[in-house]
Amino acid sequence: MSWDHIIGQLRQKDMLRRAIRQGRLPNAYLFTGPEGTGKEATAIEVAKVLNCDAADALISAAACGVCTSCEKFATLSHPNIEILFPVEKILLEQPGETGKDRDKHDEALERLKSLYAEKCRNPYFTMRMDKSMGILTSQVEALLEKSLYKPAGGKRRVFLISQAERLGGDAANKLLKLLEEPPSYVLFILVSSQPEKLLPTIVSRCQPVRFAALAAEQMLEVLTEKFGDTVDASQLSFNARFARGSFSQALKLSETGAGDEPHTPQKLRDEALELLRNALASGRAFELMRRIEDAAKRDRPRESQSGLLAAMLVVFEDVISVQAAGVAARITNADQREVIERFAKNFPDGDFETAARETEQTIYRIAHNASPLLAFIALALNLRRLLRPQ
Ligand SMILES: [Zn+2]
After folding, report:
1. In this predicted structure, which of 40-54, 61-75, 141-155, 161-175 has the lowest mean pLDDT?
2. How many Å apart are CA 26 and CA 186, to the nearest integer?
3. Which of 84, 125, 200, 366 is the most exposed place for a label (fewest CB within 10 A)?
4. Contact 185/151 with Cβ under 8 angstroms?
5. What is the pTM of this model?
6. How many domains does the chain have?
7. CATH number, domain at 288?
């Protein structure tokens, strides 16, 4: 990794590098912006520069990439970087030597290790544990403990707090105390795609840096470099658009390929089209309900449910493009051009813009624990009303 591997975000990178060169870093940053736009990758790069052994690292605000410190950053094993994210509670407990708890603890530890391995490989990856309850008080307490000691090598210690919106009340208050009297040798970087959920008192202690959603073209360039030999160009172009500004999503789609898995983007898209057809046709209530039940199934991962909705959103965006630009329109679902054009033609009075917004809202609701079944039913009714005005 180096600055070059962080896609786009030129203004943000410039600003951070200037602050490093001038030695005017704040005590705490808050990186906000959509998921997968490089917030954490950038935070790690900042930490790497601040700890690089090269004589001109701070003057040029660039890490050499080859010194011992940089090597340790490549494996995220440097003592001056600490990543806090919501982990499973069992990891913070002292298990016995043997027994069931010990096994569970070891399994969780394995999961943690594989998350770190993935993070080293791909700094755009967000580390998540399904069974976590948020960032816990004891995690912040451990951070407090660490903040008492000067960093190794006389450099700067960086505390990266991923998914900061998941700080629990008590944990947030403890962190606030730390931010109120921050040791000069610690740089806090809080990262959040939902900063509105943070305590205002925490936000006010941090200098904000807002990351922008990435343009499909920017992502496509990097995807082509990485996968150009193995994945065909039209698939990469689809992935770049389907990812909707998130490079981590675009990477994931390109790595899994078109394959036979049930939740590939094209399969989700086909499912979205079917759902849409049934929602808009007359006398198809039974079939529609069956499809909604399928979409909202209890054992279906939420990620796949939002994927289905994201696919629907991309269909709407394509219809909007076709309605605006006709045959010249550049669309994501190029392989379904006829279907998209038919939608545009059959629903000339449809409010596809609002339909897209409603779909986006539904993605948000499902991600925030709304009942998927109710959310899908409400969306289907709304779509019918918006796209088939009487
Ligand atoms: Zn270095």
Report:
1. 141-155
2. 10
3. 200
4. yes
5. 0.82
6. 2
7. 1.20.272.10
